[in-house]
Structure formats: C-alpha cells, structure tokens
Amino acid sequence: MGSIRRKIVYVDDVNFSLVSVKNRLKEHYEFYLAQSVDRLFEILEYFKPDLILLDINMPGMNGYEAIKKLKADSRYADIPVIFLTGRSDRESVVEGISLGATDYVSRPFSDAVLIERIERVFNPEKHKESLRIKSGNRPKIIHVDDVNYSLISVKSRLKDRYEIYPVQTAAILFKTLEYIKPDLILLDINMPLVDGYEILEKLKVDERYADIPVIFLTGKDNRESMVKGFSLGASDYMSKPFSDSELIKRIEYQLNSRKNEHSLQNDESSDKPSILAVDGDFGMLNAVSHALRDEYDGPLKEIIQKKFLLFYALRDKYKVYMLSKPDEVKDFLKQKTPNLFLLEYKAFISDELDLISMIRELPEHKETPIILLTSESSLNHLSLAINLGACDFILKPFKPKELREKIAKHIRAF
Fold it and tell me: Are 50 and 57 in contact (CB under 8 A)?
C-alpha cells in the first residue's frame, strides 16, 4: 500500500466487528475504533482521518444521521465515507449513496474486496494502472450487482477462468469503463439509483461500449423481463439460481461469438455480395446478433428464431447488415455500398417511400436492386413503391428458400 499509513476511523457499535476488521486490515492502515457516533465526533476533534468506515444500525445516532452531520460540517464534509454494514437491501444502498457515501460494502466481505474499495478512494490513478496491467490474456468480465455477497460468490466461482471486476453501482461501472474495456459484462436488473435496464441503454448508445456483450444475471425470471432485456440489447439472460457450468457455457458462447463477429466485420476483402436490410424489428438486433446459431439455447430462442432466422440464413452466401431506422441508412451508405436492399414496407409506409427515393438519388445506387418485404394488407401501396424505384417484393410470412431465390435472381441480374 506504500509507505503512507492512512488513518481510518471505523464506527460500529459491535465490538467484535471493530476488532475483527482492525485485525484483518491493520497491516495496511492505521485504525481508530469508535463504538458510537458520539465517540466518532470526539475523535474528529483531535485529528482528521483519511477515511471513515461507518455502520448503519447503531443505538443513539445511526449511520445515516452520522453522515448527514458529517456532510453538513465544513470541517468534515470532504472526508470520504464508506458504509460497512450488514444491510444489503436496495433501499439502504440508495439511502447511503444519496446521502453522500463514497461507496457501500455489505457483509460478508473478503479482505481483498474491502481493501480494493478503500484503495479506490486513496489511490484512484494507481488503481486504474493496476487494472490495466492485471493478468494480461484472460478475458475480462465486469460484474455489476448491488449485493456484495453476489459479487463475491460469482467472482469466487469464475476467477480461475476470467479476470472478474466486481462493481456495485452504475457510477462505479462507468468509472471502471474509463480505464478498462471488458470482454463481457454481467448485469443485475434490480439495483438502486440506476437499474440494469437503464445501464444497458446507456451502454448501447455509447459507441465506446455498444459492442460489449451484456448478459443479464438476475433474480427476475419472468418473460416480460426477458423480452425487455433482449429488446434493449442484452446478448443473453440468466435467472438466479444458476449452475457454474451453465454460466460458463453462456459466457464462452458470447466470447467466441464476438470473436467470430469481429472476424466477419473486419473481413473487408470478402467477395460475398452485401445486403442491407431495414426493418423496425431490428431494434432488437444488437441483443440477438450472436444468438441465432444452432447451438444457442437461451431462454428466448423461439421468439428470436421467428423474427430473425430468415435473415441470418443468408449469411453463408451474403454479408448482411441490419438497421432498424430509415434515418440510419444515409450514414451507413457513406461507408458501405451494398449490392441489394431489403426494406420492410409495412413498418415505414410513409418513411419507406422517402427512403427509396433517397437511395435512388445516389449515383451508385440508381440501379441497385430494392426488394420490399410486405404483407397482403400493404399491397394497395405497392404500385407506388414500385414506381419510386423498388424492383420487387416478397410477401410475409415467407420461407428462407423463397427469399434466397429472389435475392439470387436480382443480384445475378445486377
């Protein structure tokens, strides 16, 4: 920890806890023990510590009241406070962080976890550097869960295969992402302040993190939660309790799929014809892009296959790109020149017609085949779309063979 002996005041009404923590960490820090909040403020009259470890449930003035009093006093407001407590419920975490705590650690905890949290306060830059150089070649996984026991449990079960970085809040996650880009994120849903859904949304709109696969690892096992998770961009969804072998299987699948996906994306020398497909349903694409191979056996397999299998069935012969919004197409075409367009007609009746016109206005796409994916109810609009430049259509639902044959015909002609 270096030559400086950081001074820590630990406040807990249970003497055994005080003595235990001091004995476990005394080689690293200089400890001062207080069995009440009153005793804490007596100590503060003599010196200013580098950190306060604070329990919540205490007689007289509890931990919440103590931190309010600390933050209201200009002499002590800048002293970092870590709650160290047996209360692990989400409401307690929310309350603690909202009152100004730097971090929140629930019992039981390991010495390593507590030291790591303390060092984040004392040496943030050193902590960043240690993460950069730690255990070079093993896949890096960030596990996000507000329950400290869950973090410790998963890390102990996976540490022989992966480099695990446990974090308890969204704020700590995004701080960690500033200095390490993981190969995968395990994410709980029910968390204080910012839940897992909100975290996933933030990840997917940030180009720095959008390609990191995310597996929800959560106690929520209802269908609605699964559908919402996948729709926001989750790569997989696992409910607690789970077996080590199943979790490792899911993780390995995502890590291998990501490697394969990057290989496909980086293979610009490929002579496969390329197809751009635009469909509102592809808003779920980021969540399922790795989930359509035969070996996938996740909880939403049937739904995923019904929506996307037909398009992924094209990947052996074509390089397929998928977008969910017409306004994304213009930017895409600045970088890529597809050999054929597949446009879902019904989802964008008004926008789609503008999209066709926009494509045809580009010199390189005046003759590029455009196939509309449509239903019988949209046929009354079809002649207008054909007049604007679409060359063909296919009725939904359709079979993979039918779609393949139609695409092959127009690409050969083109």
Answer: no
Strand partners for 371: 342, 392
Per-residue model confidence (pLDDT) at position 379: 56
Alpha-carbon distances, residue 365 vs 104, 274, 333, 356, 360 (angstroms)? 57, 13, 10, 10, 6
The answer to whether 53 and 82 are in contact (CB under 8 A) is: yes
Report how far residue 240's alpha carbon sits from residue 258's, in angstroms, rounded to the nearest whole number: 24
Residues composing the chain: 414
Tokens at residue 398, please?
């359709």
Bridge partner residues of 365 (DSSP): none
Q: What per-residue confidence (pLDDT) applies to 132?
A: 47
Structure tokens at 411: 């690409």
DSSP letter at 205 equals T
Under DSSP, the state recorded for 44 is H
Global confidence as pTM = 0.47
Candidates 210, 288, 304; CA nearest to 253 is 288
Q: pLDDT tens digits, residue range 9-38?
A: 999 999 988 998 999 888 889 999 999 999
Domains within the chain, CATH numbers bracketed: 7-121 (3.40.50.2300), 133-261 (3.40.50.2300), 267-413 (3.40.50.2300)
Q: Name the amino acid, one letter, at 347.
A: A
122 sits in the region (left: phi over 0; alpha: psi -120 to 50; else beta) called: alpha
Tokens of 341: 């367009």
Upstream peptide bond of 299 is cis (omega within 30 degrees of 0): no
Using CA atoms, how far apart are residues 303 and 339, in angstroms rounded to an integer? 29
Name which of 350, 360, 411, 410 is nearest 384 in CA terms. Answer: 350
pLDDT in tens, 135-146: 457 899 999 998
Whether the pLDDT of residue 162 is over 80: the answer is yes
- C-beta of residue 229 within 8 angstroms of C-beta of residue 216: yes
- For the residues of 99-144, what is the DSSP string, one character each? TT-SEEEESS--HHHHHHHHHHHH-HHHHHHHHHHSSTTSPEEEEE
The runs of H, that is alpha helices, within 159-232 are 170-176, 196-204, 223-232
Q: Are 60 and 38 in contact (CB under 8 A)?
A: yes
- Highest mean pLDDT among 182-196, 281-295, 300-314 belongs to 182-196
Angstrom distance (rounded) from CA 380 to CA 336: 32
